[in-house]
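Summary: Need help interpreting a holo structure output

Steps to reproduce:
1. Submit the protein chain below together with the SMILES for zinc ion.
2. Request a joint structure prediction with the ligand placed.
3. Inspect the structure token block that comes back.

Expected: a single structure record containing both the chain and the bound molecule.
Actual: see attached output.

Input attached:
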Amino acid sequence: MSVWDDVVGQPDAVATLRRAATDPAAMTHAWLLTGPPGSGRSVAARAFAAALQCTGTDGETGGCGRCRACTTTLAGTHPDLTVVATDKVVITIDEVRDLIMTAARTPSSGRYRVIVVEDADRMAERTTNVLLKAIEEPPPHTVWVLCAPSAQDVLPTIRSRCRGVVLRVPPAQDVADLLVRRDGIDPAVALTAARAAQSHVGLARRLARDADARERRDAVLEIARRIRGVGDAVLAAGELVDVAKAEAVAATMERDAVEKAELMRALGVQDGDTLPPRLRSQLKQLEDDQKRRATRRQRDVLDRSMVDLLSLYRDVLVVQLGAAVDLVNAEHDGTVRALAADSTPEQTIRRMDAIGVARERLEGNVAPLLALEAMAVALRPQG
Ligand SMILES: [Zn+2]
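--- attached output ---
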């Protein structure tokens, strides 16, 4: 075993990172890992961090996966590893200043001080400029690993100072193999989930293990067949938004409560006490952050629903064109064939375009219900 085992379907990226961890001549101090959501950017970044810290077992270095440095880095508890994982919408300038201070310190026990920033694209330009100076002249023992969906998502000034490593969408079979090996999932279920998730590793895992998640996805796909007229379309759009809202609340509620309790404790306020007025702004700040996080989550869930719908129409087009490729939604074969028989390839493409437009409008902060209603209306049968 090695730290690279969970970095699935990325032989080129792994080769580059592994070499850098073992050969000083191939090493550099600022990296930019890019790849689409679910391609495993953060997994690859942690594996790289572990490989850099690895002290070796039986002469095997560069991420043996068994030494204490490897296991603690993968677990996120190595003292010389800092990971900025943002559920927040933005990384603030104060957070980056703290990071830079951390980066300047010598490693306490490891070979390097490694700073992983999982969403380097969530920084305002002013914040990025603060970071830039640190990346330009890092202390010799410091390694920055920035992650982003694509190189275009970070400022050119950052991009040009980092060595780029590109992750691709892993093959569905590789993702399925990982689920079987790591999570003990039945091979057939794993492959169906990997296909349905279009190789998004985290999502595939959730679909394979969580019947509710599968049910929600099925319900989204059923919408395609249910929409017969404008009335159904408006209802369906409302349902999609409600489901996303409920999922966002469920995902964030528990954590919000813990964060609030922690803040109150930090401020020295006992349970049940009212908050003194001078401390209210701090609570307000936290609540604003949490609200932003919930909004972001809701948009992510909606976007995921639209990617699912897109995959269904992609399957419809595959059937209509008689292409010899696997269906993403083989278990929805009936729906796919019914839609294929009911429409022309041109109509299918127009529907896919409508979904694409809705995704763009959501990204551009159009009210979700508005964007989805327009999309749903475009999905109804065109006679
Ligand atoms: Zn090791």
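--- end attachment ---

Reviewer comment: The two ends are 57 Å apart (CA to CA). The chain has a mean pLDDT of 89.
Status: needs-info
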